[in-house]
Amino acid sequence: MDESQIKKAAALGSVSAGAPLPEIIRDLLVALGEDPGRDGLQETPERIAQTLRFLTSGYEMRVEDILNGALYPVSYDEMVMVKDIELFSLCEHHLLPFFGKCHVAYIPDQRVVGLSKIPRLVDMFSRRLQIQERLTTQIAETFMEKIRPQGVGVVIEARHLCMMMRGVEKQHSQAVTSAMLGVFREQQQTREEFLSLVMSN
């Protein structure tokens, strides 16, 4: 939430501008009909504040710091893929978690990136308030911009607690999103190879 959004929320009486996060959470507990002073809840506002800061720590991360120069010149032009990257994020509509797996593949163009940087990039964008569609696109577009491969493909498979616990209450539903850029969009064979690797055990 930027400064203008905070001021707007404060004007609506939903949050005190500049108030410490634990204080806001304490007020929320009262609004829900709870007593934040009772046993079991006394430390809850601080715990929730710490949890939220961790789950949204992606706002403090920078792509340049994550990559940290880990780009290596290599004469290799076949697909590189990291699949089954565990993903946890918060739905920006209900602040409920969605979680699942992210699969990222790219075709290098004279250089490759350190493999550990790919999950870190996924973490950076997932540790923000998100929707799955935007998260998928952000990972793909950032990879394309910073790594400059011939192409990149990203697929996310996730379960959303906002669908499982409330609303339609479909506990076994799963959302699948994809983003294909460069040769993954232009060449059907490359796209099909990637998708077949995603579906393989």
Layout of helices and strands:
Blueprint: H1 3-11, H2 21-31, H3 44-55, H4 63-67, E1 71-73, E2 80-91, E3 97-107, E4 111-113, H5 117-126, E5 129-130, H6 132-147, E6 151-160, H7 161-164, E7 175-182, H8 183-186, H9 188-199
Parallel strand pairs: 2-5
Antiparallel strand pairs: 1-4, 2-3, 3-6, 6-7
Helix pairs in contact: 2-3, 5-6
- Helix content estimate: 40-55%
- Topology order in helix (H) and strand (E) letters: HHHHEEEEHEHEHEHH
Q: What is the beta-strand fraction?
A: 15-25%
Number of helices: 9
Annotated CATH topology of the largest domain: GTP Cyclohydrolase I, domain 2
> Biggest β-sheet, characterized?
5 strands, mixed
Low-confidence stretches: 1-16
Q: Which CATH architecture of the largest domain is right?
A: 2-Layer Sandwich
- Tally of domains: 2
Explain briefly what this protein structure is.
The protein has nine helices and seven strands; from the N terminus they run ααααββββαβαβαβαα. The chain has 201 residues and is of the alpha+beta class.
What tags apply to this protein structure?
9 helices; disordered N terminus; alpha+beta; elongated; 201 residues; five-stranded mixed sheet; two-stranded antiparallel ribbon; GTP Cyclohydrolase I, Chain A, domain 1; GTP Cyclohydrolase I, domain 2; 41% helix; 2 domains
Structural commentary:
The structure is a single chain. The chain has 201 residues and is of the alpha+beta class. The protein has two domains: 53 residues, GTP Cyclohydrolase I, Chain A, domain 1 (Orthogonal Bundle), CATH 1.10.286; 132 residues, GTP cyclohydrolase I, C-terminal domain/NADPH-dependent 7-cyano-7-deazaguanine reductase, N-terminal domain (GTP Cyclohydrolase I, domain 2), CATH 3.30.1130.10. Helix content is 41%, strand content 24%. Strands 5-2-3-6-7 form a five-stranded mixed β-sheet, with helices on both faces. Strand 2 and strand 3 form a beta hairpin. The radius of gyration is 20 Å and the shape is elongated.
